[in-house]
Amino acid sequence: MSYVTISKWKNDPDFDRDVAIDIVQQKYVSAILALGAERVYFVELPDNEVRSITVYPTQAIAAAAAEKQAAVRTQGEKELRTQLVGVEHGEVFASGQA
Predict the structure, then answer these.
(1) Number of domains in the chain
(2) What integer pLDDT is reported at residue 13 of this predicted model?
(3) DSSP letter, residue 52
(4) CATH at residue 84
(5) Does some domain include residue 96?
(6) Prediction pTM value
(7) Domain span holding position 26
(8) Nearest to 85 by CA among 56, 45, 36, 35
(9) What is the mean pLDDT of each run of 10 residues along the chain (98 residues)?
(10) pLDDT of residue 14
(11) Residue 57 resides in a domain
(12) Could you tell me the end-to-end alpha-carbon distance of the chain, in angstroms, rounded to an integer?
């Protein structure tokens, strides 16, 4: 089964949503996929928060990408005016798609 990393972000007060959407789509999606991820989602939530959900084919691939993914997060914090609040990860035990 797949392995997922969920990053929790809190946007700074001067966060520019429209600029961030363009940068994330053009730069960060491809950077994360280049680390071996199968999919990545950036989800906008209330209270100025975002979650990035990265799906890797295996835990081994996620572990191999961890250091580089941390560097991508650090760069994103600076460029996007957001702060990483936490990271959770685990193995997918069930999934579905219509």
Answers:
(1) 1
(2) 87
(3) E
(4) 3.30.70.100
(5) no
(6) 0.91
(7) 3-90
(8) 45
(9) 95 89 95 97 95 97 94 91 95 94
(10) 85
(11) yes
(12) 18
